[in-house]
Amino acid sequence: MTKCIFVTGGASGIGRAIAIRFAREGWFVALADVDSAGMVQTGALLPAGRWSAHLLDVRDAAGWDIALGLGAAAGGGVIHVVANNAGVPLGGALAQCTVEEIERVIAINLTGATLGARAAYPWLKAAGGQGACLLNTASAAALYGTPGTSVYAATKAGLRALTEALDAEWAGDGIAVRSLMPGFIATPLLEHAPNAATPGTITDAVVRQGLEIGTPDAVAEAAWQAVHGPRLHMLVGPTARRLAFAARWLPGTLRRRLRRGGGTATA
């Protein structure tokens, strides 16, 4: 039986890489995004007849139900994996961020993902026992809040908590729940300014700090392993692994470093 994955944020970046990775294994891919042109570009990289595209703003609860239904119909009636991947960046000092910027990132990254989990549940429950999985794209920012990432880190920490809660809540339904925790990844999001009041791009800030920028393919491989393995949270890249180590084993040292202004912003 052909399996089906529903990928939000499928028009570019990590979502596109996940789509390509699963398609390579013979899966049907249902793409969802607000960017229809980007989804067509992703689809051109997938096997003909093995994908579909669905306009979805993840903040729209009714839109989730419609898109999932259409994606399931296109993919054979069942959805085995929902990649809750859509997200937007926001960086810089909290005082520099506008109310509109704060509300937008929370609505997309956290509320949208939570609405997605709720809407995905009946589809994944129907596929329980067949490798059903909700896969949330969190971030290394969920491991420890660092200067310049307050709102973004809060949304990703929320996704981490959502993953842990639903992993227990849905276990009896045969649904695995997993998260991806990458460091900085080379996607179009890094070319955004941290916020409207801060010049330059997120990439500029990462380079100034001497941090590495990983590839979407590395995250996609982690996604494949997450869906097919037992690990709850998948760390991706050196920044994520270093931050996880420090947060667990050297929390006092990490806190002192961040308070001195030598912190590492993680996205």
From TrEMBL:
Family: Belongs to the short-chain dehydrogenases/reductases (SDR) family.
Gene3D superfamilies, per database record: NAD(P)-binding Rossmann-like Domain
Keywords: Oxidoreductase
The species this protein was found in: Novosphingobium capsulatum
Matching PANTHER family: 5-KETO-D-GLUCONATE 5-REDUCTASE, ALCOHOL DEHYDROGENASE, PUTATIVE (AFU_ORTHOLOGUE AFUA_3G03445)-RELATED
Protein name: NAD(P)-dependent dehydrogenase (Short-subunit alcohol dehydrogenase family)
InterPro entries (UniProt xref): NAD(P)-bd_dom_sf, SDR_fam
Taxonomic path: Bacteria, Pseudomonadati, Pseudomonadota, Alphaproteobacteria, Sphingomonadales
